[in-house]
Amino acid sequence: MDYLPRTGQGRAPDVFERGGWMPMREYRDDEAVDFAIVGAGAGGSTLACKLAEAGFSVVVLEAGPFWRPLEDFASDEEAQQQLYWLDERLTSGADPIALGGNNSGWGVGGSTVHFSMISLRFRPEWFRSRSLLGYGVDWPLSYEEMAPYYEEAERALAISGPLRYPWGPPHRRYPYREHEMNAAGLVLARGAERMGVAWSAVPLATVSAPRGKSPPCVYRGFCNFGCSTNAKQSALVVWIPRALRAGAEVRDLAMAGRIELHANGLASGVHYRRSGQWRFQRARNVVVAGYAIETPRLLLNSSCPSFPQGLANRSGLVGTHLTTHAGPGVWARFDEEIRWNKGPPNMAVCEHWNYTDDGKDFAGGYAFMSQGPLPRAWAQLVATSRQLWGGRLREAMLDYNYMSGLVAVAETEPRPGNRVILADERDRHGLPIAHVEFSYSDNDRRMQEHARRYMGRMLEAAGGKDPWTSEDTSHILGTCRMGDNPETSVVDSIGRSWDVRNLWICDGSLFPTSGGVNPSLTIQALACRIGDRIRTLSARGEL
Amino acid sequence: MTPLARTASGPGARALGALTLGLTLAAVLAARSRPRSVRPARPMHAPAPLRSADPEARAAGQLYLSSAMLAASVLSDSALEHYRGGFENPGMFAPLASAALVLAGAANGARRPGRSVAALPFGAACAIGMAGLGFHVYNVLRRPGGLSWGNLFYAAPVGAPAALSLAGLLGLAAREVGRGEANLAGMPRGRALGMLAAAGLAGTSMEAALLHFRGAYHNPAMWLPVGLPPVGAALLAAASAPAAPSRRRSRLARGWLAATAWLGAGGVAFHAFGIARQMGGWRNWSQNLLSGPPLPAPPSFSALALAGRAALALRAREPAWREAA
Amino acid sequence: MNTNARYPGYDVLAKWDSPSFDDSTRRVLGRRLDDVPPRRFLSEAEWDLLEAVNRRLLPQPDRLEPIPITPWIDAMLMENLGEGFRHPDMPPLRECWRLGLAALADEARCRHGRDFTALDAAEQDVLLQALAVQDVRSPQWQALHPERFFTHWLLKTAAGIYYAHPWAWSEIGFGGPASPRGYVRLGFDSRDPWEARAGKAKDPG
C-alpha cells in the first residue's frame, strides 16, 4: 500500500471528523525550532503537547502515517498489520524477541494506536528496586516525584478504572468508571476468588462514557488493530490534537536518519527523509522518542568524530540493558461460552506477585491479565506453541469461543548483553538496521516458571480444562537508561543526555528496570515530568 | 473467601423464578376472569361513592395515572433489560406480565376513578416487585466481586424492582381514595401518599445517581435527576409531617414537583440524545438501545411527581390542614 | 471434518450490510474474497510445491472451493513485505522462501527420490514433521534453519492467512468485523443476536 503524507499546507488531519482537517502551524527547515522530536508515540506525543502548550516551537517527525481512525481502520487483523513497524530488523540471542506487531508501532500515536490500553502505575518500591528490594537498579527519581505526573497522565487519558484498586498507594479516583467485565475477565476473577487472592478490573485508556468527541467503547475487541470507534485514548487522539492546537507541527512519513552535531558539541538538527528526499530540520534541542529499538539505532547511526561509538554514547551504554516483559501464557478450555474477543483484550488483572515479596524463588514481580486474542493471532499462537497443523489445528480452532487464558507481564533483569546494535544490512532508506540480542537470566526463567504454575492453578480453579502453555514477550525498554551518574547511565533523571546538553530521550528507553506492569502510563507520566522540568529550566535560563 | 460464584442462575434460582412467573400468570388469569368493576358491599361507615367531579375523584384519577405511568416505565425498562439479560431465568418474564396488568388496571381506573377496580393486579405487583428485589440482590451477590462497585454498576439494578411495587402501591392507594377512604395504612391518606411518593422520588433519584456516576457525569445535565427530585422529596415529606405546613411551602412543593415531572420528560430527550451520541447513533440501535442510556427510565420521575401532587391535593382537604390554613 | 458442525447456518458475511461492517472493512474484505492475486513471484514449480505443503498444513477436504493460501504468500513476496523481523541465521524474506522451498524440494528427493508433489499425503506429513524436529537430510538446509522455516515461515504464515478469511471465521463462530456495532452481552454463555449460535453438543461430529 502506498502512503502519502497528510500533514502540510497549513493543516493536519482531524481524527474526529471523517475527511476533516485542523489548522497546523508550520516551521521552516532552515529556521531552528526549539524542539525537534523524533517519534510521535507515547513519549514523543506527550512531550510535544507539553512543550507546545508551554510556548515552545515544536516539530515532530514521525516515520509512519497520520492515521484517520474513522476511515483507515478496518475490522480486520490482516489489513491492520499496517499499524506496525514492518521494516526489517534482526533478532537473536538465546531467547530472541519477536518484533513487528508484537511491540512496535508505526504512525502518529506509535504503539498507543495498537496497544491494549492497560494503564497501571509502578509499584512505588520499584523506583528503588536495588535499595528497597535488593535487585535491579535504582531509578534516579522516586514514586513521590512521579505521583503528580501519573495523575496528570491518568486525567489526560480519561482512564476508566475501578474505584478501589487493590494494590499500591491510594490515589485520586480515575476520571471514568471501570468497564463492564467480560467473561474472559470473569474467569480470572472466579479463579482468584477461589484461590483467595485479590483481582481487579484493569484501568484502561478507553472511555466507558462519552468524552468530547469520543463515544464510549463498543466492545468490538479489535483494540490491538486500531480503534475505529475512537473510544481508545491513544496519543493520536489525546496528545497530538492538543499539541497541534498549541502550535506544534507534525510531519508524517518523515523517517529520521541522523542527528547532526555542531562543532560546539551541541545537536544542531535532524536529517530526515520525506517524499523520497532527504531534508534537514534545524533545532535548538533534539528529542529522541522512537522507543527502545529505534532510539538507540538513531543514536548509533549518528556517530561522528566526537562520538565514534554513537552519539551521546560516552558511557557505552546506548542500546544496552534492554529489558522486555516475559509473557508466559496458560490457556484452557471451558464448558461455558467465553467469546473472549468481545471487549478489550485484557480486562482483569492480578498483581498479587508484584506486591508480595515472600514465597518467591526469584527477584522482581509480575502481573497477569485475562486475554482475548482474535482468530488470526490465536491461530498463529496455537500452531506455533503446540506445533499443531493439519486437521488437528482446525479441530483445536473450533474451541475458539470456549477458550480463556492468562498471560503475565513479568520483569526481566537489565543486563549489558541484552542490547540493540547495528547490523550491516540497510533498510529502504539506506540506513543500517537494528539487531536486537536478548537472553533470559536464571532469575527471569524462575519467575516465568512460577508464573506458569500459578496461572495454571488459577485457570483450573476457575474451571479450565486441558491447560497448555505458551511463551511470548511484550514491550521493549531500557536501552538509553536514566540515572544519576554519567558512567552508569545515558541520560539524567529528566532524560537529558550527559554528553550532549541539548539532546533528550523521552520514551521507554529511559527505564532502568522494567517493572512488572505495562509501561505506557509510566512513559507518559515521565514525558509530562520532563516537559514540566524543561519549562522550569527554560524559565531559569538553564536550557 | 466469597462463596462459589456460578455463572448463570443456579437451578434453585431458576426454580424460584419459574414459580414467580407462574404466580404472575395466575394473577393475570385471575384478573381476566373477574368482572371489570367489582362493587363490594358497602360497609355502614363507608362514605358515599365519589362522582367524577369531586376533588377526591381527581386525586384518585391522578394516582391511577401515576401508577399507569410507572407501570409503563417498568414494563418497557424491564423488557429491554431482561432481553439484554437473555431472559436466562424464567422469572424475568414476571415483571413484564405484572407491569402490563397494572398498566391495564390503572388505565382503566384513571378513566373512571369513581368505579372500583380489582385489587389483585396491584397487590400482585407489590409482591412481584419484592421478589424481584430479592432476585436482583442475588444477581449482584453471586457474581465475582459480590457487593462491589462493578456489580452495582453492571449487574441487575438493585432498586429497579421497587418501582414495580411502587406502581402496585399507587394503584392500591388510588382504589382506596376512589372508594372514599380517608385513611391509608392507618394515616390520613394525604400524608401516607406524600411519604410514599417522597420515598419513591428519593429512591429513583439514588438509582439515577448510581448510573450517572457510572457515566462519570460526563454531561452536567446528569446532575439534574440527582439534585432536583430529592429536594422535591424533602418538600413533600415536610408537607406530609403531622403539623400542617404553610400555604407558601405547599405551593413551593407543588411547583417543585411540577418541575420534577417535566424533568422526567426532559430526561427522555436527554437519553435519546445520549443514544445518538453513542457509536453509530440510532443506526446502531440494536446495540445502543440496550447499552445506551435507558429511554423508559426518566418518566418514573414524572409518575412519582404526579403522585406527590395528588398527595398534596388530598392533604389540603384534610380537616387539620384546613383549620391551620 | 464438517465445518458446519459447531455453528450450523452461521455466515459472518451475512452481516455485510449490517452495522457490524463499515466501508473500510468492506473494501478490505472485498479484495480478499474477490481479488485473489495470480502467480507473480514464485515459479510454477515453487507454487505447486507450496500448494501441496499448504494442503497438508491446512487441509480443506470439506470445501469445494478452498480458502486460498498460496496466492497471498506469492503476493507477500511480490510486495516484499514481511513481519518486520527475522533471526540472523535466516535469509531475508524473498531469499528465505526461495531457499526454503528449494531445500524442501531437495529433502523430498533425498528421502524418496521423488518430488514432494508426487508423494502421498502420509509421506508429505512425515517429511514436514521431520522439518519440525530438525531431522533433515538435505545439505541445502545449511542456508537456513529448518525448524524455524517450518514453524515461523510455513506454518505461521499459512495459519495466519487461513484464519484471516471470513469462511474460517464462520467455521469457528467468530463474531467477525464489528464497527460501528460491537457487542452488548459480554458475560458467560451470552450471545448477541448477530453472533454465531452454537449447534448442539460440542462433539466433533
SSE blueprint:
The complex is a heterotrimer of chains A (543), B (325) and C (205).
Chain A lengths: L10 E3 L7 E3 L9 E6 L3 H12 L4 E4 L7 H4 L17 E3 L36 H5 L9 H14 L3 E2 L14 E2 L5 H13 L4 E2 L37 H7 L3 E3 L2 E8 L5 E8 L2 E12 L2 H10 L22 E4 L2 E5 L14 E3 L1 H4 L10 E5 L4 H12 L4 H7 L5 E8 L8 E8 L5 E6 L4 H20 L3 E6 L2 E5 L25 E3 L14 H20 L4
Parallel strand pairs in A: 3-4, 3-12, 4-9, 5-19, 6-7, 12-22
Antiparallel strand pairs in A: 1-2, 8-15, 10-11, 11-12, 13-21, 14-17, 14-20, 15-16, 16-17, 18-19
Chain B lengths: L10 H23 L21 H30 L9 H18 L8 H23 L6 H6 L5 H19 L4 E2 L2 E2 H26 L9 H16 L7 H31 L7 H7 L7 H18 L2 H6 L1
Antiparallel strand pairs in B: 1-2
Helix pairs in contact in B: 1-3, 1-4, 2-3, 2-6, 2-11, 3-4, 3-6, 4-6, 6-7, 7-8, 7-11, 8-9, 8-11, 9-11
Chain C lengths: L22 H12 L9 H14 L12 H10 L13 H20 L8 H12 L13 H17 L3 H7 L33
Task: Note down, in words, how this protein is organized.
The complex is a heterotrimer of chains A (543), B (325) and C (205). Chain A has helices at residues 42-53, 69-72, 129-133, 143-156, 183-195, 239-245, 291-300, 352-355, 375-386, 391-397, 442-461, 520-539; strands at residues 11-13, 21-23, 33-38, 58-61, 90-92, 160-161, 176-177, 200-201, 249-251, 254-261, 267-274, 277-288, 323-326, 329-333, 348-350, 366-370, 403-410, 419-426, 432-437, 465-470, 473-477, 503-505. Chain A has 543 residues and is of the alpha/beta class. Chain A has a single domain, classed as FAD/NAD(P)-binding domain (3-Layer(bba) Sandwich). By secondary structure, chain B is mainly α. Chain B is 69% helix and 1% strand. Chain B contains 12 helices and 2 strands, in the order ααααααββαααααα. Chain B has helices at residues 11-33, 55-84, 94-111, 120-142, 149-154, 160-178, 189-214, 224-239, 247-277, 285-291, 299-316, 319-324; strands at 183-184, 187-188. In chain B, helix 1 (11-33) packs antiparallel against helix 4 (120-142), helix 7 runs antiparallel to helix 11 and helix 8 (224-239) packs parallel to helix 11 (299-316). The model of chain B is unreliable at 1-6 (pLDDT under 50). Chain C is built from 7 helices and no strands. Chain C is elongated and about 55 Å long. Chain C has helices at residues 23-34, 44-57, 70-79, 93-112, 121-132, 146-162, 166-172. Chain C is 45% helix and 0% strand. The chains are: A alpha/beta (543), B mainly alpha (325), C mainly alpha (205). Chains in contact: A-B, A-C, B-C. Chains A and C meet through strand 5, helix 9 and helix 10 of A and helix 1, helix 5, helix 6 and helix 7 of C.
